Amino acid sequence: MIAIYPGSFDPITLGHLDIIQRGDRLFEKVIVAVLCNPSKSPLFSLEKRVEQIKDCTQHLPNVEVESFTGLTIEYARQRNAGVLLRGLRVLSDFEKELQMAHTNKTLWANIETVFLATSNEYSFLSSSVVKEVAKFGGSIDHLVPDNVANDLYKCFRVPPQPKPQ
After folding, report:
1. How far apart are CA 109 and CA 26, in angstroms?
2. Can you give the pLDDT at residue 165?
3. Helix (H) or strand (E) holding 30
4. Do the beta carbons of residue 77 and residue 49 sit within 8 Å?
5. Residue 53, CA atoms < 13 Å, CB-side half-sphere
6. Rounded alpha-carbon distances, angstroms, from residue 90 to 8, 27, 105, 133
7. CB atoms inside a 10 Å sphere around CB 120
8. Nearest Cα to Cα of residue 70 among 101, 33, 97
9. pLDDT for the residue numbered 113
10. What are the mean pLDDT values of the chain's consecutive 10-residue runs (165 residues total)?
């Protein structure tokens, strides 16, 4: 079965990567679908986000990375996906994601949503947190893949920080 893992991934975090790796073990194929959302102003271009994710998932042979616009459910239908893969960190994530899962089911009855609880070490992690820490010169090497950390340090013009002990 094909699973779609949609998101803006601005930037991809180790929490996202954890969900991708776990999804890779559960499904024949996982398509990481990077959303082009015109209502958001991302830090990285759509092309850069796709490149970052491809770089840090190249060791996963059943993972593809693509971008899309429009409704996730329409993209899933085009790709013949049977599952939308979603990560959950906290209870408030569940409320929002459950509502979206029900909405998606009304749009296409053949889709299922599979929720994976975020691993404990990433339960606090979000792309917004990563950007905020990087912006003020804090270490992010333990929060994002190395290629993404380097891109963030360049973006905010701060030198790479040592990993926390």
Report:
1. 21
2. 61
3. strand 29-35
4. no
5. 33
6. 19, 24, 23, 20
7. 7
8. 33
9. 97
10. 97 97 97 89 95 97 96 97 95 90 97 96 93 92 95 84 62
- Read off the DSSP letter of residue 145: -
Distance CA 143, CA 158 (A): 16
Query: Distance of CA 58 to CAs 26, 54, 135, Å?
Result: 18, 6, 28
How far apart (Å, rounded) are the C-alpha atoms in residues 76 and 56?
23
Would you state the structure tokens that stand for residue 95, as one six-digit string? Answer: 């409320």
C-alpha–C-alpha distance, residues 54 and 64, integer Å:
8
CA–CA gap between residue 81 and residue 83 (Å, rounded)? 6
- Catalytic residue numbers? 16, 40, 89, 127
Chain centre distance of CA 59: 17
Q: Which residues contact 100 (CB under 8 A, 6 or more apart)?
A: 113
- Contact of 115 with 88, CB cutoff 8 Å: yes
